[in-house]
Write a structure and sequence with these properties.
Blueprint: E1 3-7, E2 10-13, E3 18-25, E4 32-39, E5 46-52, E6 57-59, E7 67-72, E8 77-82, E9 91-99, E10 109-110, E11 114-119
Parallel strand pairs: 2-11
Antiparallel strand pairs: 1-3, 3-8, 4-5, 4-9, 5-6, 7-8, 9-10, 9-11
């Protein structure tokens, strides 16, 4: 069974930083996409950033230059480094995984989410 478990969320002041982690197990596709999504109350789910098995990242304009996605293949862990956090970044953050066939459009596996709250 594929399992994704997020951690690292919390409450921070505006301008602060957090690093989210996503531990992945049971996922063996050699070509894959992994990403971070977020959803705030009353708003639609938003794709934050995605990275594929070639290590090529893509970012939403709202987080470009502030957030960095990375992965440690040896530890089967996906990371999201969030810098210069803003109150509008407040949301539940989810990691997700799916096949790269040939684009990162299908995310079949999801974590339980971790809350990020940014206060001003």
């Amino acid at each position: 069974q594929v399992q994704l478990v997020e951690s690292g969320g919390g409450s921070v002041q505006a301008g602060g930083s957090l690093r989210l982690s996503c531990a992945v197990s049971g996922f063996s596709d050699s070509r894959y996409c992994m990403g971070w999504f977020r959803q705030a109350p009353g708003k639609e789910r938003e794709r934050v950033t995605v990275i594929d098995s070639n290590g090529i990242p893509s970012y939403a304009d709202s987080v470009l230059a502030r957030f960095i996605i990375s992965q440690d293949n040896a530890k089967n862990t996906l990371y999201l480094q969030m810098n210069s956090l803003k109150p509008e970044d407040t949301a539940m953050y989810y990691c997700a995984a799916g096949p790269f066939r040939p684009f990162c459009t299908d995310y079949n596996y999801w974590g339980q989410g971790t809350q990020v709250t940014v206060s001003s």
